[in-house]
Design a protein that fits this description.
The protein is an alpha/beta fold. The strands form five sheets. The protein has a seven-stranded mixed β-sheet with strand order 14-15-16-13-12-17-18, sandwiched between helices. A six-stranded mixed β-sheet has the order 9-8-7-10-11-19, with helices on both faces. The protein is globular. 53% of the residues are buried. The structure holds adenosine-5'-diphosphate. The site of adenosine-5'-diphosphate has 17 residues, from helix 8 and helix 9.
């Protein structure tokens, strides 16, 4: 049953850590404030963990991995637990959505239309994989004897999972799904800005029947709780989503214990619009590409490349569409765009708008300022006259700011599109299949969308080239990141 209404913030109940199936304060009793971006007010005080709490979580996760019901559970039963969790998320969708809106500031329509269904389907998809994670039989050389050789996939072990604040529930699901399907145990460190829905997911996981210690949640800051997880010798793998600069720190800190690492990082994704494109479709797609989720999307289409001959037509329509977006109360189902997640992000986006106007000297055709005087809202912003070497074309802003650039031809645009440290995603808008494939082949990016943007499915791999990451989330590729391959040679003794 749902407990929260769609139009009002829910009561915050869970603020502690989840360790070994029990809720507990941080050992130090320290807490940190978590905010509601739409009001800028504190909504809860959450356990602020350090090394000691991480250590307790690692002990619980190790014990659950090596003995106890999880270690003996059949793969099929692990899958059933994920199905059950999916069902519980569906059943509690209103409450979860309401909590996500409260803590993240995104609009309720998007949470219910995108985040929740994707969370549910992610758990189902990986639940389906649990009993299909198989090895191979290998036809090895028989000149030295008669051998039977096979491989099997075993869990990596205790997995530390450090997630960001832009899709708090979905990022938890992307991390838990493949890890649990493969039989690992996990310690999730939610972003300090948005811990609330992960805690409710943890409670639902307990209700679903995951044994104690299989799913642990340790709240706190990156530099304390996150850092302790990365350095802990009892953690076998770190899966991280966030900024590449943080990934560099994690990589260095994980070196001593030689942890397995997967990263899903940022982007400066190009959206390429050819003159022959369906212009209205391209405008709608580019809008979704950059303004969805307040632009707080790692694969946001933040560089919009438009062929010279249709530049003015495109910009005219793009501006009109951006100005039609409704900003405001994220609990209103009619709202398109909510608040940026934090004061820090709000200031960062405004700083980049200032750089665009004054340092890069690009033209701000719409937006370029905050919306209202309460909370952390920023108007959809479009810059034209942008060159690819400008800061607003190269640095990740992570907000509702589009940089529009011109291009001459296919060769020119592929070169410009690839002139970035990132390689997470790209889009191309054209009616010419040859051009579409040429861009899809030419851009060095983990996902390419042709005449669409931001389509996601748990079955479709997602991840980055270059500074945008390593490894893949979703799809069967995610399973390789959470399993070790064991090769077994058996001497059949026939010779
Ligand atoms: P942002 O700056 O957008 O918040 P980050 O990459 O800093 O992005 O944060 C993503 C996640 O990484 C958060 O959960 C954060 O707490 C965590 N984090 C930040 N710094 C570290 C660190 N040094 N070690 C481990 N985790 C960290």
């Amino acid at each position: 049953m749902t407990t929260a209404t769609m139009s009002s913030p829910p009561k915050v109940r869970l603020t502690q850590n989840l360790i070994d199936g029990k809720w507990s304060d941080a050992g130090s009793r320290a807490t940190f404030d978590t905010f509601g971006p739409a009001t800028g007010e504190v909504v809860a005080k959450v356990a602020s963990s350090d090394k000691t709490d991480v250590d307790a979580a690692v002990k619980a996760a190790r014990a659950a991995l090596e003995c106890g019901p999880w270690s003996k559970m059949s793969a099929r039963d692990r899958g059933k637990l994920l199905f059950k969790l999916a069902e519980l998320v569906e059943r509690n969708a209103d409450e979860l959505a309401s909590l996500e809106v409260l803590n993240n500031g995104k609009p309720i329509g998007e949470v219910k239309g995108a985040d929740i269904p994707l969370v549910v389907e992610t758990f189902r998809y990986f639940g389906g994989w649990a009993d299909k994670i198989t090895g191979d039989t290998i036809p090895v050389d028989r000149s030295m004897g008669d051998f039977f050789c096979y491989t099997k996939r075993e869990p990596v072990g205790v997995c530390g999972q450090i997630i960001p604040w832009n899709f708090p529930m979905l990022m938890a699901a992307w991390k838990w799904g493949p890890a649990l399907a493969c039989g690992n145990t996990v310690i999730l460190k939610p972003a300090e800005q948005t811990p609330l829905t992960a805690l409710r997911l943890g409670e639902l996981a307990m209700e679903a029947g995951f044994p104690p210690g299989v799913i642990n949640i340790v709240n706190g800051f990156g530099e304390t709780a996150g850092d302790a997880l990365v350095k802990h010798p009892g953690v076998d793998k770190i899966a991280f989503t966030g900024e590449y600069k943080t990934a560099q720190i994690i990589m260095r800190n994980a070196a001593d214990t030689l942890k397995r690492l997967t990263f899903e990082l940022g982007g400066k994704s190009p959206s390429v619009i050819f003159a022959d494109a369906d212009m209205d479709l391209a405008v709608r797609g580019s809008m979704a590409g950059i303004f969805f989720n307040q632009g707080e999307v790692c694969c946001a289409g933040s560089r919009v490349f438009v062929e010279e001959s249709v530049h003015d037509e495109f910009v005219g329509k793009f501006k009109v569409a951006a100005e039609k977006r409704r900003l405001g109360d994220p609990y209103d189902v009619k709202t398109h765009q909510g608040a940026q997640v934090s004061k820090e992000q709000f200031d960062k986006v405004l700083k980049y708008i200032d750089i665009g106007k004054n340092e890069d000297k690009a033209t701000c055709v719409t937006g370029g300022e905050r919306f209202g005087d309460k909370g952390w809202f920023i108007k959809p912003t479009i810059f034209t006259g942008v060159r690819n070497d400008m800061r607003i074309a190269q640095e990740e802003i992570f907000g509702p700011v589009a940089a529009v650039l011109k291009f001459k031809d296919l060769h020119d645009v592929v070169k410009q599109a690839n002139t970035t440290i990132y390689g997470l995603a790209a889009a191309v808008w054209t009616r010419d299949i040859t051009k579409a494939f040429a861009v899809a082949d030419g851009v060095r990016a983990g996902t390419v969308w042709v005449n669409c943007y931001n389509t996601f499915d748990p079955a479709a791999p997602f991840g980055g080239y270059k500074f945008s990451g390593q490894g893949r989330e979703n799809g069967k590729d995610a399973l390789s990141a959470y399993s070790e391959v064991k090769t077994v040679w058996v001497n059949l003794g026939k010779r």
